[in-house]
């Protein structure tokens, strides 16, 4: 298993994975290309980490940092690679990166009904810090906001 930073040529494979991940955010080519074309990516403002097994992309995580806090924006794992710890590895890598860069906290939101994702984040000691009512559409659902705080 290899975890590496994404490159623009990874976009089609990332979109193929997210297409079959009902709870992932579904971004356009343009959304991803903006990340790779923006100078902020070069200054570590936004990160995309990929998990690869046997030369095949199996999942990815997108995060951004603002003012010493990080936010996980999107996570998707290939359907045939779920329940094998790949999401756990990606979150662990992100926490390591954030810690190394002096982050104070990491935030994310997840559908209230997404029990697998909630269990993953709780395993890493994320705690519920709020709710965004009717945040998601199709179906309409609340978002649960989670926070991981680094020890000082």
Automatic annotation (TrEMBL):
EC number: 2.3.1.266
UniProtKB keywords: Acyltransferase, Cytoplasm, Ribonucleoprotein, Ribosomal protein, Transferase
InterPro entries: AcTrfase_RimI/Ard1, Acyl_CoA_acyltransferase, GNAT_dom, YpeA/RimI_acetyltransf
Cell compartment(s), UniProt: Cytoplasm
Single GO MF annotation: protein-N-terminal-alanine acetyltransferase activity
Principal EC category: transferase
GO cellular component, one term: ribosome
Primary location class: cytoplasm
Reaction equation(s) it catalyzes: N-terminal L-alanyl-[ribosomal protein bS18] + acetyl-CoA = N-terminal N(alpha)-acetyl-L-alanyl-[ribosomal protein bS18] + CoA + H(+)
Domain N-acetyltransferase: 1-151
Family classification: Belongs to the acetyltransferase family. RimI subfamily.
Protein function: Acetylates the N-terminal alanine of ribosomal protein bS18.
This protein's name: [Ribosomal protein bS18]-alanine N-acetyltransferase
Species assigned in the record: Candidatus Korobacter versatilis
């Amino acid at each position: 298993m290899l975890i590496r930073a994404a490159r623009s040529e990874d976009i089609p494979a990332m979109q193929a994975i997210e297409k079959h991940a009902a709870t992932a955010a579904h971004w356009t080519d343009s959304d991803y290309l903006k990340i790779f074309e923006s100078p902020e990516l070069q200054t570590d403002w936004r990160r995309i980490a990929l998990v690869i097994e046997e030369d095949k992309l199996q999942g990815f995580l997108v995060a951004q940092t603002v003012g010493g806090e990080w936010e996980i924006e999107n996570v998707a794992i290939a359907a045939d690679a779920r329940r094998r710890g790949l999401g756990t590895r990606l979150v662990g890598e992100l926490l390591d990166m954030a810690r190394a860069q002096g982050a104070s906290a990491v935030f994310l939101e997840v559908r209230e009904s997404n029990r697998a994702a909630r269990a993953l984040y709780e395993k890493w000691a994320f705690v519920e810090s709020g709710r965004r009512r009717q945040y998601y559409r199709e179906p309409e659902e609340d978002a649960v906001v989670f926070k991981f705080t680094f020890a000082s």
